Amino acid sequence: MFQPLPVSIEQFEGPIERLRLTAAADGRFIAWIAGRQVHGSTRDAFNAPFAWQALQRMALNALPVRMGVLVHADGRREAHWAVAAGSAGLVPVPAALERRFARAQAMPWLPVLALWSIWSAVAMPQAHAGLGWMLLLLIALGGTAGIVAMLAPLAATWLRHRRRQPLRAASEQNLVHAIAAMRKQHRAWSRRLRSAALRRSARDAARALQDREWAQTLADAAAGTIALQRLHGRLPMPWSSQGLHGEGSGMLLMDDYRFALCGRYLSLRALHGPGYPTPFLAMGDRVEVLVPAQERAEADSVYALRNLEDGRVYIAHGAFRLQAGGDPAGEHALTGFTARSYRLRGASGASVALVATTLCYFVFGFDPDEAGRSLERAGFFAAVFLAMIAAIVLPYAWSRRRWRSGRANARERLTERVYAALGLGSPLAPLPAYAHDV
């Protein structure tokens, strides 16, 4: 929601020297133009359905490109627009239109907030005798917080575009001039498209011969675990889909990346939501993949993937959270959580327990007229809070102690082997900065 604001704008001109473009459903890309690295996305573009294909065409045919860039304080460059000879590759949504759309979405909620405020001020005091001030205050704050939570993203979008208005307006003005200039170059460059495409095809064929795919079966170093296979090759364009996986209340929203490598059909599942990184997988990236050595009729689940282009490692812990410890396929599955995930879950559980016990004390236990009984009830709720903390912490502490003492189960032994094959150290230690739990 809260993104850093750009501090300046730049404009680059020349052919796209290299392009890393993810699947169309994702739309993120990294382009190298005029010796500079630029990040961007086609999903938010005004011409989103065509921007993905247009960028590919620009890079494939070595078209002369003009690209407008927003420069952030940390030096990161974000592509704002891109046009080529006879092609509008990336056209942004006008800032004024985005602000107007955010304001239109927020307007229906303003009367709701006003009516709720009036009701809270007028009707709630009349119910004081039956419910009590503390419960009424909690109801009022809860309702107000819900409405504000709905308005906050829209207000943040409106304010962000308002603060970026001067730079975006200047960049959009440059886009108008760039489109006019590129139209004049279209005829001259259209004659060179065929020869450029032929040169690019020859270069890609030579690179494919140099980067042959290969597979290596790793020795089984732990009894009771399956054999692993390491696959190496260039990634075709992955097919990406998003959906719910699991059954009942245990369903999780995941991104499913499917691709073929070394003659095998593979599936990398990554959790989708706030706090979870989205893998950057572009066509042509050199990758190293760890999978079970035994093939199945359906797509084989990927344990981990190392992208050799940027050095990032993605470990698919989230894909195995749906399998319980007693599942028959437990020996084929990694642990569902990393050490950091367990700590975050424990901290979240402790926060929820603290808020719940505090609210219960003020609603049911606090009595300003009887200080002694209030202290006794405070001690009772404190004991309940400590019991909830123990129920959260003790199972985690016991599992870590059992694992460290050498009594790991099949899933934990397989996780150790995957981490060792990738050089990540112990699964009980924090992950390096370049490794991500997806």
Secondary structure layout:
Elements: E1 6-21, E2 28-33, E3 36-41, H1 48-60, E4 64-72, E5 77-84, E6 87-90, H2 95-106, H3 109-122, H4 128-131, H5 133-163, H6 165-190, H7 193-210, E7 214-218, E8 228-234, E9 239-245, E10 252-261, E11 264-271, E12 286-292, E13 300-301, E14 304-307, E15 313-315, H8 339-365, H9 371-404, H10 410-422, E16 435-437
Parallel strand pairs: 11-13, 15-16
Antiparallel strand pairs: 1-2, 1-4, 2-3, 4-5, 5-6, 7-8, 8-12, 9-10, 10-11, 12-14, 14-15
Short description:
The chain has 438 residues and is α+β, with helices and mostly antiparallel strands.
Sheet-strand content, in percent, reads 15-25%
Q: What is the molecular shape?
A: flat
Query: How many domain modules?
Result: 4
Q: Radius of gyration from the CA trace?
A: 28 Å
Helix content: 40-55%
* Structural class based on helices, strands and sheet pairing: alpha+beta
Average of pLDDT: 76
Q: List the secondary-structure elements in sequence, H or E.
A: EEEHEEEHHHHHHEEEEEEEEEHHHE
Unreliable segments of 5+ consecutive residues: 324-329
